[in-house]
Amino acid sequence: MPTPHLWLDTYGDELYRFALGRVGGDEVQAEELVQETFLSALSALDTFRGEASERTWLFVILRRKIIDFYRRRARHPEVSLDAVTPAGPVEAAFFRPENGHWRPEQYPAAWQTADGALEQQELQATIRGCQQKLPPQHAAVFAMRFVEELTAEEICQELAITPSNYWVIVHRAKLQLRRCLEKHGLS
Amino acid sequence: MLRLITCQHATMLLEQRADMPLAAADRRSLWLHLRFCPLCQRYATQTVLVAGLARVAAAPRHTAPGLSVAARRRLAAILPGAEK
After folding, report:
1. Which residues in B lie closer than 8 A to residue A99 (C-beta atoms)?
2. Helix (H, G, I), strand (E, B) or coil at A77
3. Which of A1, A117, B33, B40 has the smallest count of CB within 10 Å of its CB?
4. How many angstroms separate the CA atoms of A128 and A182, rounded?
């Protein structure tokens, strides 16, 4: 039996911290996601069958809200998804159009990564900053794939994009994030 | 038959390889390219690291502050019977 009167005290902070990590530390957005989660859960109390714990159920709803958040970001009308082609300006900035090889100024440098590099708070802050610099669609697709771990097929369905557009966006996001990390401390 | 591919193509195939099995011709072309291109070899390692880092960076931090008092008040208002 769900106990909505206890949700805030029992799960509120945990849901909020989870959401906060997914929205790059935006406190207002994280609170909104928790609010949307509670509202959806309240309207779906009848569907709670107790097969999973109440906590698991609330987190499933929150994850759905986070994916909706990414989808709204991906629809940000900065660049039309229709215009995504492998011969765009991002590719031209990294590779020479005449032969498709790395431009010398974009050669990937060796990274100094010690064991446990992923755990370094500074590095984590850097990648969060780099993700925020991506165009909204790129950031959304990247997060859906590599943070939420949706499949390519699921992302194409969520965002109503073709697989070829999807791959161009993933490739661009990775190129830009790799370069951003390199510029900000990894090389 | 081995087909020579560009760095742009090779890095795209590296992204696809992480997600799905490549066609045999693409797999061979990528293998050949990586044998002779230290830059794309480097990219292959680094792109995996970028994804891993993003995943770790988005994980909840237990030391992060919880909901503010004002936020708790707003949320309590929508939950029937919650302590305000």
Report:
1. 6
2. coil
3. A1
4. 14
Please report the pLDDT score of residue A87 as a whole number.
64
Q: How far is CA A176 from the centre of its chain?
A: 15
What pLDDT does residue A115 have? Answer: 64
Rounded-to-integer distance, Cα A143 and Cα A73, Å: 11
A114 CB-near residues (< 8 Å, 6+ apart): none
pLDDT digits (tens, 9 = 90+) for B21-45: 999 999 999 999 999 999 999 999 9
- Outline where B1-84 has alpha helix (H): 7-17, 24-36, 38-58, 69-78
Q: Please report, in angstroms and rounded to a whole number, the separation of the first and last CA atoms in chain A.
A: 54
Contact A95 B8 (CB under 8 A): yes
Cα atoms found within 13 Å of the Cα of residue A75, Cβ hemisphere only: 8
**A162 interfaces chain B, CB cutoff of 8 Å:** no
Which ipTM value was assigned to this complex? 0.89
- pTM for this prediction: 0.88
